[in-house]
Protein 1
Amino acid sequence: MRKLIISEEEKKQIKSMYGLLIYESTETPITLPHTITIPTWTSSDEDSAHKLEDSQITEHVTPILQQIYDSGKNPKFTNGTMEIIKNGNQFSTNVTLTINESDDGLAYMGLTTRGSIGDDYLNRAWGQITGAGDKNGRSLEWKIKNILSGDNMDTFSHVIDDDIELSQYFVQFTKKEFPPHKKSSQTIINQTSEKKEISIGTDPVKLRDELKTFSKNQPLYDVNINITNQIEITYQTSGSQRIYLSYIYSPDGKLQDVLDKVEMSNVVINKRLLDLDEGIFQGYVVELT
């Protein structure tokens, strides 16, 4: 039989139809290094001109960090720029950030900036880092660990613009809830396996959604699946290749036709047959990489 040649869009449609897209339809895999451009903002005062708000980070930076982390890579910022253009009493600010895969084995999932503009800008900006400019003497490192729930801190860029008297520090930090992914060459010592039990139920769509949601929110490595009256998933929380889970089935009993279409879309899967004696539905719990 001649093998059909289908387009990339058709492959994507097949993956979406059978719940085999690792990324949602609005997402595309991120190639590293990756540059984020924060939308330009305008202001009428100096303080607003150089302040990168938490809301801007949450909207434009955090989702990118999460997607990189979810792909099994540790993100790390390598450069940050800030350009402020003054036109009379108006300011226009442009910020770009460059992210690459971490070279020190840590996952930097937090970002903040500190800086000053105007009189004595160099000393005032540095005082925000050391705590000399804080009324309680608290350094930025203290604030990251005690207020922002961060851990390791790294200052990755320092922007100085003498024309407008700007000094701005870009700082990244790790978070305890995002442990770094381990490379295959790294030895994981005394790592214990975790277990998740998922009820099979009678709704294949609900089962698929539960498997996908669980494996998207919880990084899975070295997965082992056992199917009895429920689905038992044993896994490690770090490793070299992240695994995503889904479920493929055929409501009209044509499971082989579904598998043939999946094969056409070039999806590489490991599968475990779920075939209930009650005949409710038949399908495969699948592992995607």
Protein 2
Amino acid sequence: MKVLRLHVDEVEYEVVKKECKLAVEVSEEEKKKRLKDALVAFVSVESGDDKTLAKKAIDETKSFMEKLKVRELLLYPFSHLSNNLAKPFDALEILNFMKAYAEELGMSVHLAPFGWNKRFALSLKPHPLAESFRSYEKGKGEEVAKKEEEEGKREFYLLTQDGKLLPIEDVKLEELPEELRILVEREALKKGATESHEEPEYIKHVKKFGFEWESMSDLGHMRYGPKACLIIKLISSYVSELVRSLGIPVYEIRGTNMFRLDEKAIAEHAKLFGERMYRFESDGKDIILRYAACFQQFAAIKDWQISYRHLPFGAFEIADSYRYEQSGELLLCFRLRKMLMPDFHVFCKDIEEAKGYFLKLHELVYEEIRKLGREYVSLYNLTSKEFLEKNEEFFSELLRVEKKPVLVCVYPPGKNFYWVLNIEYHIIDKMKRPREIATVQIDVGNSERFGIRYADKDGKEKHPIILHTAVLGTIERWVYTLFDTALREKNPTLPLWLSPTQVRIIPVSEKFLEFAKQILASLEKEGIRVDLDDRNETVGKKIRDAEQEWVPYVLVVGEKELERKGETIPVRVRKEGKVEEMRLRELVRRVKEEAEGFPSEELPYPKFLSRRVNF
């Protein structure tokens, strides 16, 4: 960072025209400014500059101004002090931080409009300290408060079932349900279990189903084998059905995963997201990979002609989303750099309509986790306590669904969030760690930011309220939840509709192969994913292999079954850990009942194991 400081009798500037797409909006009053007896700091933000350097520059400038007994400071973006300039997005973020930090220190500070060509005039003071040039390099300044320190400014509470908001320090942790206590300790008190370097138990099991890291890519990117692809495809179909269960029109949108940071709406949204973005340069443009489906959906919907009659409606996409997570935090199927995000947005007329659909989504989120026999513990993030106090009945309805207290986090005032309520739904996994899975939030800022409008009854232009949700979380995180749930059972198994092979037939010898094929054909006609182990292996090995693959139903057929013409067949029921004699039609009924209401796909590989690649 390069800073030229001038002590002036007077300085005046006037904006002329925009120089880039990130040029800030300027009111008529702000287009021209004159200051007397001021310090002008011409600032060139360079590539790699961060808030550490920005803070150091302001600290030194404050001391310099106190020495000169000057009160007014003008920060003036100035690209001519360096040939190693930062990208406009980064430069604007640093300059805004410098202004905000100076105001925190009680300084009277002005920031000349960024991204504009300006004419200026100044009159320099005639004394030796009137001119000062400073260069700031990375690593030479005091460190900015770390993220944890910033988060320490947040306030945590426990919201009880009867609506009382208790400061977290007044809560008796030993009286909380275990899973809620774990969340409180981890999120609010920053203690509890730390991440282990040992490989979690679920890893070896998800790998057997084809969920693996891709070693030939960047860290944090996965590959999916045939079984994994089937599971991903089924979950994708299921969540597509779920979002349509709200009873509103849902429009599917697809597009690019690359967006330019010189687009103002993209830059503002990206600034709110934080630093974990994939960035690169293309044709001289600063590009980011999207970290959710918001960009493409909002970029498309801003061009739609929307009336109040069209609202509410939903937009949906299963998007490739990219987040540059730290390498030490990566965890297969949970914390990734590239994930499949089933992003659903609901566009509502106003906050009251938004609250109604928010509650429906909240109920849907809980309905799905309870289908697995699990519960979430929730963290309610708020930008102010006022929203909670003004919407007591709404929060009472949320708590009715929860059936337990929730942890509440209130962010400090002044942060420019686009949402007013953001619920994180956490499971507590086998290793006693909170894992955020699903989320729902009320967005009050992005429709205006992206220029999304609708015409009300009077023809007036308004901006809709937007609900963001991933009802199941990312698809990979839902897979994580499924396996974490399965491994709590004596005989782990996936829900039958997600089991790649639902029924396996094992003939005790080649003599019974044709009979086994007849059974296979009967089950195939019923739409059941069934395969046949015709390999030249012992029955014991075939049964062990089926168990390793978590096959829900295994039929072993031999002499007795052939003699009875398949009237009853011994069926190994994995979930119950026992063998039951069943008629074939009874097995069909059980499989169909378990899979009812869920999508179906065909077997993703050859039905005869002898013809199957060993993947």
